Amino acid sequence: MNTQDILNRLDRSALDDTAPLTLKVGHLRVQIRALPPLMDELRSYFADAVADDGPVDARIDVLEGQALDPAPDWQDWAREPGKTGRKDAYVDLQDARLIYKVRTGVTFLQSADHIVAFGPTASHPNQVVNFINTQILNQCLREGWQICHAAAVTNGTRSLAIAGLSGGGKSTSILRMMDLDNTRFVTNDRLMVQVGTPVPTGLGIPKHPRINPGTILGNPRLHPMLSKAEMERLHAMETDELWDLEEKHDLLVPDIYGADRIQYSAPLTDFWVLNWQRGGAEPTQVTQVDLATRPDLLSAIMKSAGPFYQDQTGRFLQDSDPLDPAPYLAALSGVTISEVSGRVDFDALAQIGAKLFE
């Protein structure tokens, strides 16, 4: 089975009369075709990245309500250590890969020439957003960039990225840096880094933060995102219970921080890795380290490209492919790397960040 076999089973004719949406992120441009109301939602979500029509690096079609019948013989994609449950499944074709979201039924065709999302896409716009951003990540990876599991902000000349293990507080930390008047949002969870002089270039993706209630509760600026009843429920929770609560909320950066507070491309000067402890006795401190001697910290930065990545030769990534530290160390050359240790204290970290951006 090949790409054309799948395309023959899908009907894309409804998209022929739609006006495409073009996005520009750094030097990359992608074009999307979708039907309303999903297209309207995507246009609003990506408002800060919308660009004029022109040459693009990738074209993406989004279909609604279509499925493959009979279904392929899906194979589970192995999840990262510490993650449980089925999430992604895939089937490799002769010249493409099909990826299936187990929990929602949304399916994706990823190939060199055809990029298509289909299934209940309108009911799961966040997965369409992620698929669109994946094409930006894929193009960067083919150009030699490295993908970091990090959030970042910039003031235009100085940029701070923050990484940590899942649930370590990087989103909460980076949003505290956004409370500074002179910073702009770069990215919340995926940061591309390319070798540069005197410092590398960092490139974010147009993905607004998806944050848990604890992040909202700890930052008065975010309180309007929740109702009074929800705030009262959260205040009644124990600290550990609140920290572990998974209830994602979309934070649209312009709605909270105002216009002109997003900048996707920026020189990367500083990188903090959260290695602090809840309930620790020692005060929060930020200490410069040599990343080459700290594989534990580097492991928190490195991020697999996942089942969607197809390199320039046409080969798809396998879930058994190891991550190579060497390209990361090269790409991060010139960046001041620091370890955040001691107890979890977002107020203290915000004060250190304010000094960094003075």
From TrEMBL:
Keyword field: Kinase, Transferase
Gene Ontology molecular function, alphabetical: kinase activity
Name this polypeptide is given: HprK-related kinase B
Organism from which the protein derives: Tritonibacter litoralis
